[in-house]
Amino acid sequence: MTHRICLLSGDGIGPEVIACAKDVLTALPLDFDFTEWGIGFEEYQRSGSPLPDSTLQAIRHADATLFGAVTTPPAIPNYFSPVVRMRQSLDLYANLRPTRSIPHESSRSNIDILIVRENTEGLYSGIERLEEDGNRAITERVITRKGSERIIRKAFDLAKQTNRGTVHVVHKANVLRQTCGLFRSVAFEIAKEYPDIELKEMLVDTCAMELVRAPEQFEVIVTTNLFGDILSDEACMFVGGLGVAASGNIGVDAAVFEPVHGSAPPLVGTGKANPVAMFLATAMMLDYLNEVESAQRLQQAVNECIANLETTPDLGGSLTTSEVTEKVKFRILNL
Ligand code: NAI
Ligand code: MG
């Protein structure tokens, strides 16, 4: 079976890490049909849009998409965030952020958390306005039953699939009584469908603290858009940081996998961009495509490289982006 993969390189180090991902994919015993499409600031300069319709169509048409990163330009009228637009246009409602220990001194041990963040509504609904001559700004926080049900169900389904026994719903319902109140009550309703999984609840500020104090206590965290954005960045710092943090944006009929980091302009062309975050995003994509064995092989190859300090300088190694890629490929072929 051939998997149709849409590649979105984007800007900065995006094209470098996407090339590495393509390279390691071709080392696996699988068939891929790759197509490449434009996104980001360079695409805007070329075509007038940071996210052309043709790119959205290509993502819909593909079995899965790998995305590098984009650069946010200085304020330009008509410019919009292609990342937020992509998530909303394709209704990629679930943002998955696994946070797993890596065999490296910068990583705490025994951590295996999956953060499931609602990706289309909440405070990022895009409903904002400036009133009173610019002296009062309002953002509306939209939480729907439908949006809450599907993300909470996704969290429980993933907990079940990965044999995790607890799901934490993280909210601030003591203050945000309507929006967080709805999200919380939907969580308790959905939990009844999963009698083998325990639902725990935690206020978001407590969760931020508990993540620092004892991250091992968490298995799956499900939360609203902004809270998930912040908590997942916090969590990745316990397990090696941005160079190794990956994420997936999952919808009903499209899925986009990406490193958490941005386009890192100062690293372009230096060979210092760590491709591991992109590789781990690629492993998530393989899982999504049901190529579980290949996903594990890639993950294991990456872990062995890290354990042997075959890494870029951000993880204390002295290899370049393409040297790390060669090492990962070598291990894939020889595992
Ligand atoms: P950044 O993630 O690009 O860089 C933050 C820090 O992490 C820098 O010190 C950078 O050198 C380092 N870093 C990032 N990726 C790395 C890698 N693969 N290996 C080693 N070190 C790495 O975030 P920053 O600097 O805030 O933003 C740069 C541009 O990226 C901005 O235009 C921003 O808007 C955009 N951005 C795009 C994102 C996306 O496409 N999803 C996400 C975050 C930022
Ligand atoms: Mg973020």
Give a quick rundown of the structure:
The protein is an alpha/beta fold.
Topology, element by element:
Elements (H helix, E strand, L loop, with lengths): L1 E9 L3 H12 L5 E7 L3 H7 L5 H9 L2 E6 L12 H8 L4 E7 L11 E7 L9 E4 L4 E4 L5 H17 L4 E6 L7 H13 L6 E6 H10 L6 E4 L1 H12 L9 E5 L4 E5 L16 H13 L3 H16 L13 H14 L1
Parallel strand pairs: 1-2, 1-3, 3-12, 5-10, 8-9, 8-10
Antiparallel strand pairs: 4-5, 4-11, 6-7, 11-12
Helix pairs in contact: 1-11, 5-6, 7-8, 9-10, 10-11
The structure holds 1,4-dihydronicotinamide adenine dinucleotide and magnesium ion.
1,4-dihydronicotinamide adenine dinucleotide binds next to loops.
What is the helix fraction of residues, given as a range? 25-40%
Strand order of the largest sheet: 2-1-3-12-11-4-5-10-8-9
In whole angstroms, how far apart are the ends? 23 Å
The run of helices and strands is EHEHHEHEEEEHEHEHEHEEHHH
CATH architecture assignment name of the largest domain: 3-Layer(aba) Sandwich
Catalogue the unreliable spans.
Answer: none
Q: How much strand?
A: 15-25%
Tell me the number of structural domains: 2
Strand count, sense and barrel status of the largest sheet are: 10 strands, mixed
Report the average pLDDT across residues. Answer: 96
Structural class: alpha/beta
Q: Rounded to an integer, what's the Rg over CA atoms?
A: 20 Å
Task: Give the key terms.
binds magnesium ion; globular; Isopropylmalate Dehydrogenase; 11 helices; 2 domains; 10-stranded mixed β-sheet; alpha/beta; 12 strands; two-stranded antiparallel sheet; 21% strand; binds 1,4-dihydronicotinamide adenine dinucleotide
